[in-house]
TrEMBL record:
<keyword id="KW-0811">Translocation</keyword>
<dbReference type="GO" id="GO:0015450">
    <property type="term" value="F:protein-transporting ATPase activity"/>
</dbReference>
<feature type="transmembrane region" description="Helical">
    <location>
        <begin position="410"/>
        <end position="431"/>
    </location>
</feature>
<protein>
    <recommendedName>
        <fullName>Protein translocase subunit SecD</fullName>
    </recommendedName>
</protein>
<keyword id="KW-1003">Cell membrane</keyword>
<dbReference type="Pfam" id="PF02355">
    <property type="entry name" value="SecD_SecF_C"/>
</dbReference>
<feature type="transmembrane region" description="Helical">
    <location>
        <begin position="306"/>
        <end position="324"/>
    </location>
</feature>
<feature type="transmembrane region" description="Helical">
    <location>
        <begin position="384"/>
        <end position="404"/>
    </location>
</feature>
<feature type="domain" description="Protein translocase subunit SecDF P1">
    <location>
        <begin position="76"/>
        <end position="132"/>
    </location>
</feature>
<dbReference type="InterPro" id="IPR022646">
    <property type="entry name" value="SecD/SecF_CS"/>
</dbReference>
<keyword id="KW-0812">Transmembrane</keyword>
<dbReference type="InterPro" id="IPR001036">
    <property type="entry name" value="Acrflvin-R"/>
</dbReference>
<comment type="function">
    <text>Part of the Sec protein translocase complex. Interacts with the SecYEG preprotein conducting channel. SecDF uses the proton motive force (PMF) to complete protein translocation after the ATP-dependent function of SecA.</text>
</comment>
<dbReference type="InterPro" id="IPR055344">
    <property type="entry name" value="SecD_SecF_C_bact"/>
</dbReference>
<dbReference type="GO" id="GO:0043952">
    <property type="term" value="P:protein transport by the Sec complex"/>
</dbReference>
<dbReference type="Pfam" id="PF21760">
    <property type="entry name" value="SecD_1st"/>
</dbReference>
<feature type="domain" description="SecDF P1 head subdomain">
    <location>
        <begin position="152"/>
        <end position="258"/>
    </location>
</feature>
Length: 446
């Protein structure tokens, strides 16, 4: 394929991606000439430090995890439940991740009300089924508590292996003949593992009570009349219809496998987020402008072609951020700016190779071809090593550094393409017999 054809295709794709990144530019022109608007484009996803929001840190109580369950499984269960919870309530782009062995970080971009955020997370119920203690054991605990001993123990019920992690569905039902007010109840359906545990519990506790605790408080303690093999249970507690609906909604959003407590909270205001975004964009624009001026001043026509390739690079990278999608943070923007520098560095390396070929007395056409060929290996090696570093950062670090690693990795991959394909196509338009007569445009290479 000729360089002219390649350049035309690259240019058309770049313009299309530019409109994808910033559709407002196209839409304004479309309004003037009565054309349809650009198709619906998703906005950039902004992180907590740019959009503002709430940062919460929770600590999980792992002292009473179910037998056979690891702390990692328990924390992953908590994370999954809270992700479903905040998604259920429509919080945009929540970040929920485990830190260490017992801590959970929750970032809710766009949520400025800390109380609201805490309520969203805190209302997620911790559901437990407890079996009745023997009378003698209960009396012993009560006597000890009168002496200020064993104060944290429940004197009437003991934890079982059945918790809310086995819940598949909750719905509002009514007891036969019950009035709507005070007669609403919540029916539970357990998964196959939960059904087996519940069957064993009911077998071992016939004519005894099994208490249902929600967030550490007993809400129902029915007596087992028969073995229940199908994994279906009912929560009764003199609920109004609205209370039963709210409870069913909360349970369907997910019951926590272990209890959690809030240990840290931080709010980033909208003004800080907007100011951070403005400063970041300004820094990126200034950096791009300075690089462009340097390349054009020092390399003249090749420098101008590298700047055009850099614009194509920017359009591709920003479009990729929307398509993946990437949640942009200050660290992520730093990764983008760093990859921008690498894209320019690859062009500088190519031009240096072309200069070496020209100094050996070769024609511009031959030097152009050999320069790109010889520059490929060092460009490839430098980009691969940077990609490996970005991969390590992404796999083994926390959210802020992950964002930096992701944007850096995407930028490096695109840089590899623009340096070896786009710049070559653009510059190839001007390399030919006629170029030998206009050395001024290539003076930096001669």
């Amino acid at each position: 394929m000729r360089y002219g054809t390649k350049t035309l295709i690259i240019g058309l794709v770049a313009v299309l991606l530019g409109f994808f990144v910033y559709p407002t530019a196209y839409n304004r022109v479309a309004d003037l000439v009565k054309l349809p608007h650009f198709f619906n484009v998703p906005p950039f996803r902004l992180g907590l430090d740019l959009l503002g929001g709430t940062h919460l840190v929770y600590q999980a109580d792992l002292t009473n995890i179910a037998a056979g369950q690891s702390t990692g499984d328990a924390m992953n269960g908590v994370r999954d439940v809270i992700e479903r919870r905040v998604n259920f309530f429509g919080v945009a782009e929540p970040l929920v991740q485990v830190e260490g062995t017992d801590r959970l970080v929750v970032e809710l971009a766009g949520v400025k009300d800390v109380g609201q955020a805490i309520q969203l997370i805190g209302e997620t119920p911790f559901l437990q089924f407890k079996t009745e203690r023997p009378v003698a054991e209960s009396q012993a605990i009560l006597e000890a508590q009168k002496k200020n001993q064993r104060l944290t123990e429940d004197p009437y019920f003991v934890d079982s292996a059945l918790t809310g992690k086995y819940l598949t569905r909750a719905q509002v039902t009514f007891a036969s003949g019950a009035a709507a007010i005070g007669g609403a109840q919540v029916s539970l359906e357990l998964n196959s593992d939960g059904a087996e545990i519940f069957k064993t519990l009911t077998e071992q506790n016939l004519n005894k009570r099994i208490a249902i605790y929600l967030d550490g408080s007993p809400i129902s303690a029915p007596t087992v009349q028969s073995v229940i093999p199908d994994g279906k249970a009912v929560i009764t507690g003199n609920f109004t219809l609205q209370e039963a609906k709210d409870l069913a909604t909360r349970l369907n959003a997910g019951a926590l496998p272990v209890p959690i407590s809030l240990i840290s909270q931080e709010t980033i205001g909208a003004s800080l987020g907007q100011q951070s975004l403005f400063n970041s964009l300004r820094a990126g624009l200034y950096g791009l402008l300075l690089v462009a001026l340097f390349m054009i001043f020092f390399y003249r026509l090749p420098g101008l072609m590298s700047v055009l390739a850099l614009l194509v690079y920017t359009a591709i990278v920003l479009a990729a951020y929307k398509l993946i999608p990437v949640t942009l943070t200050l660290a992520g923007i730093a990764g983008f700016i760093l990859s921008l520098g690498m894209a320019v560095d690859a062009n500088v390396l190519i031009f240096a190779r072309i200069r070496e070929e020209l100094h050996q007395g070769k024609s511009l056409v031959v030097a152009f071809r050999e320069g790109f060929h010889r520059a490929w290996l060092p460009i490839r090696d430098s980009h691969v090593t940077t990609l490996l570093g970005a991969l390590v950062l992404y796999l083994f670090t926390t959210s802020i550094v992950k964002g930096f690693a992701l944007t850096l990795g995407v930028g490096v991959l695109v840089s590899l393409f623009t340096a070896t394909v786009v710049t070559k196509s653009f510059l190839g338009l001007f390399v030919g017999p006629q170029a030998e007569k206009h050395h001024w445009w290539f003076k930096a290479l001669l």
